[in-house]
Amino acid sequence: MDFPGNTPADTAARRAAWTAYWATGGLHSCVGSFDGNYSGAIGAFWRDVFDRLPGGPLRALDLATGNGALPRLLWEHRKQVPGLEVDAVDLAQLAPGWLDPSQHAGLRFHAGVAMENLPFPDACFDLVGSQYGFEYALRDAALAEALRVLKPGGRLALVMHHADSVLVRVGRSELRNQAIVLAPEGLLPATAAVLPWIAKARAGIDPSGEPGALEARNAYNRAIQALATDIAGSPAPDLLVEARAWVNQLLAGTGADPGPSLEKLSAYRDGLVAAGLRTGELIEHALGAEQLQSLVQAIQAARPAARVEVETLQQAQGVLGWGLRLEPA
Ligand SMILES: C[S@@+](CC[C@H](N)C(=O)[O-])C[C@H]1O[C@@H](n2cnc3c(N)ncnc32)[C@H](O)[C@@H]1O
């Protein structure tokens, strides 16, 4: 049931890419799927999960929490009910800017924690949840851990990526676009090569006689022309259009010293590579119907008396994911 790609090096790269993302302060990573405030299918799924929880004190665990979108939703949903405690774990370092210890006592973030190896005793949670997180793990190990820490009558609720979702479709097109601008003959390498010559010209030195300058300018022009063709032919050219505008601005702002612009370019490229890694992960870990079924069977085998419910979460834009829940008997 597990995916490849979980060597220590893969884990380190994944942790670094997500740490960099969460450091920007974003609340979740699939912004378009939430209508900003959970008014769509995903919000409806979680509200239903929360509505079925018993009243009174409750301890919940969120797996692969990111900056805590799910704990925050649960906290808001249950703010009238005293006694809520939430533990939120993630492999990456986190920066939940919204967290206010005076408001959210009882909500604990645990960064650098893999869901395959949870630092909690057996049977201590009433709810174990995850939103676009559980499927990223080695699922056999993560499931064993989730069920170990879940109380016998507890609930498990998962929103997971769906192989036919709109997020996967958009992700594939983003990966194609990233590859176009990062390719050796693409916009970003061509910009890096032409930048020092532009800086020379801005310093008042005419580089036009130098063969390197001519070569760099021609390569840049070819990259710009190819990009225009790609933009015209792409059903979702946003990233390409954005990259072209960003480079235009960078070149316009370049002075006699190419250093600052080259640094900005390098940071921009690193950002694209990290975004590509996250998108690649999304696509790789999205579950098809058979994989979902094998997960359901594994849950059912571990908790034969409980009920497993699955649904496809969708709204006007298309399919957003799978919803899975384990309900006590
Ligand atoms: C798509 S984000 C989802 C974050 C959050 N649940 C949300 O809804 O915004 C996936 C998260 O899974 C985390 N992750 C990936 N593999 C993990 C693992 N084995 N254990 C814990 N967290 C993991 C990543 O660090 C990342 O923050």
From TrEMBL:
Matches recorded under SUPFAM superfamilies: S-adenosyl-L-methionine-dependent methyltransferases
Domain Methyltransferase type: residue ranges: 61-157
Gene3D superfamilies xrefs: Vaccinia Virus protein VP39
Highest taxon in the source lineage: Bacteria
A Pfam family of this chain: Methyltransf_11
Any one GO MF annotation of this record: S-adenosylmethionine-dependent methyltransferase activity
CDD domains (alphabetical): AdoMet_MTases (cd02440)
UniProt name for this protein: Methyltransferase type 11 domain-containing protein
Organism expressing this protein natively: Arenimonas donghaensis DSM 18148 = HO3-R19
